[in-house]
Write a structure and sequence with these properties.
The protein has 484 residues and is an alpha+beta fold. It contains 14 helices and 21 strands. Strands 4, 9, 10, 11 and 20 form a 5-stranded antiparallel beta sheet that branches. Strands 6-7-5-8 form a 4-stranded antiparallel beta sheet, with helices on one face. It has a 4-stranded antiparallel beta sheet with strand order 13-12-17-18, with helices on one face. The longest helix is centred in the C-terminal third of the chain and has 33 residues. The mean pLDDT is 82.
Length: 484
């Protein structure tokens, strides 16, 4: 191609857009050598491609359909007391019972309180499951664990029975310590002897400060309560004698039936609670390294909040570092073989080297742009995501073939006016085909099927990048090359 025509080509807005996106994608991927001399990037890999573990947790609760002749509020209050569990109304016909009971166990309680059990589904309502997801994400992020995914598995009836947690870069023991034993966070006050009474759950905590050390060298964690929580705390402290005799009525913080903090109210706090509610408090953990470590752990528990229900591990699995490295190598080989195969097929069809190279390069540029997008949004790459990238290679070549066949006539590029008409017609066909692919992939992208989401999202993004960026650029490039 002549130099002046090459300059004109690179100034075309379609080609320029492609080049800019490629440069930005390379910057986002940031290939570089680490301290050990190994080539690395900003790409994040899921369990399939590196060491990691996954846990599937089952909610110990149920959503039930009911009917009652009693006033709804009275019925729910009496049922909650009978079951010794939190009972929340989902809608006019359904309740969420935040404690595990079988259907046979629940029926006598409903009858005793003037109601009838109509339907039974183990799990949580969709809204509560979303809260659980947020709490678990906060818990994992507070532990400093990177590359973690939390996916709630919700059925078509809107009831979520399981939540799947994937953590790359950790082993199974660590994963179970972080997530597997996550239970309810609760604040209680000592009454008589070793007896305690419930005061608050963690959802009354509105903010938590980072651990700090006071002037006397004591480490502690400051936190605030919402208005209802502060008043409830004050009334409980007065009722159980914590304000007048704090040493014998200690405050206990309990996570999953295990005490993570216990101490009496300070003299100043006990005195202030006598007259008004206090929203801001500080839990002291001691001095030195031990006090600092205890403060760090307590901060995590306070930030995590309270899971509204208990969970148990229903399934688990892990990927070793060697197996992840093997998968990574196989994926790279699959990409290389896919591009080489595409090149041979295109050459066999057109027998024109000037067509093969632009097609393969355009196809490869789509992959680079998608990798840049993945890196920019911190999306984890796993085997389904890799499958989506390879699918983009295939669908991309299909669309480039449509463009080439529509534009060329007996192996030559037509006049500019006819070329533009054929290009427009080819792009219309491609847009319709792309819309079909997007519609087909949307259910997989939106449903709670974590193993397929990556495939669907990458396929959709590949189609969009192709239609908006690479196909128009290819149309301009192929015209200028073959018109020589």
């Amino acid at each position: 191609m002549k130099q002046d025509k090459l300059k004109t080509l690179f100034k075309d807005w379609r080609v320029l857009t492609l080049i800019v996106l490629l440069v930005l994608s390379v910057v986002a991927i940031y290939p570089h050598f680490d301290d050990k001399g190994d080539l690395t990037t900003n790409l994040q890999y899921g369990l399939d491609l590196q060491q990691g573990a996954w846990l599937q947790l089952e909610f110990q609760s149920e959503v039930v359909g009911y009917s009652t002749t009693e006033p709804t509020g009275t019925f729910i209050t009496n049922l909650s007391k009978s079951l010794d569990a939190d009972v929340e109304q989902v809608d006019s016909n359904h309740l969420e019972i935040r404690k595990y009971y079988t259907q046979a166990q629940l029926e006598p309680y409903f009858e005793a309180n003037g109601g009838t059990l109509v339907s039974y589904q183990q799990g949580l309502s969709k809204d509560t499951a979303a809260d659980v997801k947020t709490i678990l994400e906060n818990k994992i992020n507070s532990m400093g664990t990177k590359d973690a995914k939390v996916n709630v598995l919700t059925g078509v009836n809107g009831v979520a029975r399981y939540v799947r947690v994937e953590m790359a870069g950790v082993d199974m023991n660590e994963a179970q310590q972080i997530v597997g034993k996550q239970g309810k966070f609760e604040i209680r006050i000592q009454t008589t002897g070793n007896q305690t009474e419930h005061v608050l759950y963690g959802d009354s905590i509105t903010s938590v400060q980072t651990p700090n050390k006071d002037t006397s060298g004591n480490w502690g964690v400051s936190f605030t309560l919402n208005a209802d929580g502060a008043e409830t705390f004050r009334q409980a402290a007065i009722r159980y004698g914590a304000t007048t005799d704090p040493d014998h009525h200690q405050l206990a913080m309990i996570l999953d039936n295990k005490t993570v903090y216990s101490a009496p109210l300070s003299t100043d706090l006990a005195s202030s609670l006598q007259s008004s509610a206090t929203h801001s408090m500080t839990a002291s953990t001691g001095t030195g390294t031990y006090g600092m470590q205890q403060a760090d752990e307590l901060e995590i528990h306070l930030r995590a909040g309270a899971l509204p229900v208990d969970v148990k591990i229903a399934g688990s699995g892990s990927t070793s570092a060697s197996l992840g490295a093997h998968y990574m190598t196989m994926c790279m080989l699959a990409f290389i073989l896919a591009l080489i195969t595409v090149g041979f097929v295109i050459y066999y069809r057109y027998r024109e080297p000037r067509i093969v190279l632009p097609m393969v390069l355009i196809n490869a540029s789509e992959i680079v742009i998608l990798l840049g997008f993945i890196s920019a949004i911190k999306f984890q790459m796993d085997l389904p995501t890799i499958a989506g990238l390879i699918a983009v290679v295939g669908t991309g070549i299909d669309q480039l073939v449509i463009l080439t066949d529509e534009i060329l006539h007996e192996g030559i590029v037509p006049s500019p006016n006819i070329y533009l008409k054929r290009l427009a017609r080819a792009l219309t066909i491609i847009v319709i085909a792309a819309a079909t692919v997007i519609i087909a992939m949307l259910p997989l992208a939106l449903m709670d099927l974590s193993t397929l989401k990556g495939f669907a999202i990458i396929t959709i993004m590949g189609v969009i990048v192709g239609v908006v960026v690479t196909r128009p650029a290819y149309g301009k490039i192929i015209m200028d090359i073959l018109s020589e």
